[in-house]
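Q: Hi! Curious about what FAD-dependent oxidoreductase looks like structurally. Here's the sequence.
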Amino acid sequence: MTHHQIVIIGGGTAGISVAARLRNKKLTDIAVIEPATTHYYQPLWTLVGGGLAPAEDSKRPMSDVIPRGVTWIPHAAADIDPHANTVTLVDGSTVTYDALIVAAGLQLDWDAVPGMRECITSARASSNYGYELAPRTWELIQSMRSGTAVFTMPSGPIKCAGAPQKIAYLAADYWRRQGVLENIRMVLVLPTPGMFGVQVFSDELVKVAARYGIEVRLASEVTQIDSVNQQVTISSMDDASQTEQLSYDMLHVVPRQSAPDWLKKTELAVPDTPTGYVDVDKHTMQHVRFENVFALGDCGSTPNSKTGAAVRAQAPVVVNNVLAYLDQQPLPASYDGYASCPLTTARDKILIAEFDYTMQPHPTLPVVNTLKEVRDFGQFKRRVLPNLYWHFMLRGLA
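A: Let's find out. The predicted structure is below.
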């Protein structure tokens, strides 16, 4: 058994950002529990799938991003006992804490839709939600000259909810530039009643889809995949008995997602829910039943869009509130639900959707009109955001 003042579960964007901010506050007894040896900047995988970036640019050794002075525990968490302030690891060892920060991310539930796991190993399907898979997406887009291309989004919260649309638009723009778009039938399957949860951005995306001639199936979800016969079953979210069988020549799938299975079984999870998110106050990020537990990022129950921009807004809130808790002071910081989704609508265009809990636009970029498509100034997603991520966000400076 080992003890640390602050234990962080997860070495992803949320965990590393918070660890760095805590070190910047001069705390010295911090541990990060993370079994992976590689850290990925996952937003780049959309550009990898669209042929705009190499996959190798999205990764760094985990040892390079763990903040100096932070103890790295290279094992996976298996259980949490919030009464005993204990984290049990998969090897049976335990770590105790004064304060716990859960940043365990989401798991990809490939088996939630029958046939999806099999389809991603087939010749005509891929997904940008995997480092090894994203390059294949670009191979499929390049080889497509006619036929039907289907792009799917699952029901329930997922990380970067705009990603299923982004790759459809990048593919359409490439095919248009190659002069073959008119030979390709594109179908985009969305579980939501609109293109986006914020009306002004939804209206813009309606125009984008129309520009490419994309058929959009709203309030629908792919519920079964037959990769042998290259066919998907699309079901209505309002009436599951209403289905459509659609053959494809290319398929880009996104799996349903949830908190890690081990986390679902702990007392930290929201009771009686299948997703298993950590049950926190949506403003303070503090657990609603265990005051020395906080959570942020994709595994938290906050009703915001699960994006890196949300983590960037949550991290200082968690740090300030953890420090206040340790000092036995009232929690001073509050998260307003801010999230941002830079939607690539073409190889040289972007729609920067910023919003908060009110589901109204929350622009933060000066000069730029973020309510409309803009030219991708300075290769915003390819250069600016990765640079901000590696050199500022993961160092607790942004």
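A: A fun detail: The chain has a mean pLDDT of 96.
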